[in-house]
Amino acid sequence: MNKRFLFVVIVLLTVTGIASSLYIMKDGNDIVAPDHTTEINRHLLYLKSSWDEISSYDSRIIAKDKSYDYAIIDVDGRLLVYTKDKIAKTLTAATSDYDIIRDIEVDGKIVGRLIVDNVMLEKLDRQNIILVIVITITILVIMLIVIIYYYYIYRTVVKPAREQQKAEEKE
Questions:
Q1: Within the chain, how many helices (H) and strands (E) appear?
Q2: Least-confidence region, from 1-15, 37-51, 128-142
Q3: Strand order in the sheet with 79-82
Q4: What is the rounded end-to-end Cα distance, in angstroms, of the chain?
Q5: In this structure, how many other beta carbons lie within 10 angstroms of the beta carbon of residue 54?
Q6: Does residue 81 sit in helix, strand or coil?
Q7: How many angstroms separate the CA atoms of 156 and 171, rounded?
Q8: Which of 113, 115, 123, 138 is the most exposed place for a label (fewest CB within 10 A)?
Q9: pLDDT at 122 exceeding the cut of 80
Q10: How far is CA 45 from CA 10, 25, 120, in A?
Q11: E strands within the chain?
Q12: Distant-in-sequence, close-in-space partners of 36: CB < 8 Å, separation ≥ 6
């Protein structure tokens, strides 16, 4: 009986490990670096041509007009424009968030910076949460199977053996 139980536990853990590995491998391919290079370059050309207007803004939130969220700061670090609240608004924050930082040049002089939000970290966080949920559910299912198996053993082996022992003691 113990060998069969050990075999069942080993098989369940192996299946769980394989399932988790396949899930991680499948979802790991979904996470790719943002691919907005051409759009960012076009945006930089637009910013260069309309810098006088943009530089007059002061911490203005605007509607998202690109496929990515972004912020624009001047060379002094003053926030000019941004598209969402939870975006890096300084170079330090952008660097720590692994955001894309591009210089805005007008007449060969750097006048500001475009900070493009990197959504890879958000995707990784979501994937990690899903992974934790999958592993937790798997462990709970294994625990349930073990509890059911112990109950089965108790009902079919232990309880009849105790009843037989009590019957023998009465005789």
A1: 6, 5
A2: 1-15
A3: 60-61, 79-82, 70-74, 109-116, 100-106
A4: 29
A5: 19
A6: strand
A7: 23
A8: 123
A9: no
A10: 61, 39, 25
A11: 60-61, 70-74, 79-82, 100-106, 109-116
A12: 66, 67, 68, 100, 116
Q: Between β-strands 60-61 and 79-82, what pairing exists: parallel, antiparallel or unpaired?
A: parallel
Structure token pair of residue 9:
């536990």
φ and ψ at 27, to 5 degrees? Answer: -75, -25
Hey, is 119 helix, strand or coil? Answer: coil
Q: Would you call 78 exposed, middle or buried from its count of C-beta atoms within 10 A (0-12, 13-18, 19+)?
A: middle
Tokens of 169: 């003691």
Surface-to-core class of residue 74, CB atoms within 10 Å of its CB (0-12 exposed, 13-18 middle, 19+ buried): middle
Q: Could you tell me the two tokens for 65?
A: 């007009």
What type of residue is 126? R
The pLDDT tens digits for 56-108 are 888 888 888 888 889 999 999 899 999 988 888 889 889 888 888 999 999 99
pLDDT digits (tens, 9 = 90+) for 13-43: 777 777 777 776 665 555 555 567 888 889 8
Name the token pair of 41.
């370059």
